[in-house]
Design goal:
Blueprint lengths: L2 H25 L6 H13 L5 H31 L2 H6 L2 H14 L2 H6 L3 H14 L4 H25 L4 H40 L1
């Protein structure tokens, strides 16, 4: 059984509350893909169980509140949270180090890119809050902008593909590949610009 088959009956029975709750837990690292959660929300809207407009609001609110809790938990309770055993198992020193390196190298744009990186999104937002290297307004703007792009894509994909689940799953995989390729190209461009800037600074010094 794929995640869509698992979530569909839950969302059909419990509606918007279930969608919001699962998205909230995704922010904490629940091993259910956020994109599939949003797609499934779009499916139940396409099948007539929920209004597509309400689903859009709930989808956006769910991802932003989930991300916000992670960011502000790191900002206000970072050291204490890192001492919890179950957090240590998920937020390993390696992941934490990767997040810190990304923040150091790319700055605020990491907040935007992290929205599309399920495995690193939680540690990056937590690290950004804990290190205070990113202001709350910067986090909100960059994460909110990324969510404005990603949330409608997944929800409308589910909405228009509700009548053919097999074809829908094929398109989900295709869109994922397109997003990852776009992010990779963007990261390479940012890295190249950062390298040029660093090289010019070195020459001047």
């Amino acid at each position: 059984m794929n995640f869509l088959d698992y979530l569909l009956p839950i969302f059909t029975e419990h509606g918007l509350l279930a969608v919001f709750s699962i998205l909230l837990l995704c922010g904490f690292g629940l091993p259910i893909p956020e994109d599939i959660t949003l797609v499934t929300g779009g499916v139940i809207a396409g099948l007539g169980y929920e209004n597509i407009g309400n689903m859009m609001y709930i989808g956006y609110a769910g991802v932003m509140v989930g991300d916000g809790i992670v960011f502000f938990s790191g900002r206000f309770f970072g050291d204490r949270i890192l001492q919890l055993n179950f957090v240590k198992k998920y937020l390993t020193p390696k992941r934490f180090q990767q997040a810190q390196m990304a923040l150091s190298k790319y700055g605020r744009w990491v907040m935007f890119i992290a929205r599309f990186l399920p495995g690193l999104r939680t540690p990056i937002y937590f690290s950004a809050g804990m290190s205070r290297s990113v202001s709350p307004w910067t986090w909100f703007f960059m994460d909110g902008l990324a969510a404005l792009l990603s949330v409608p894509v997944w929800i409308y994909l589910g909405y228009y593909g509700a009548q053919n689940i097999d074809l829908l799953l094929t398109w989900v995989r295709r869109v994922e590949y397109i997003l990852y390729a776009t992010i990779l190209v963007g990261a390479l461009v940012v890295g190249w610009l950062w390298y040029r800037k660093l090289k010019k600074k070195t020459i001047k010094d």
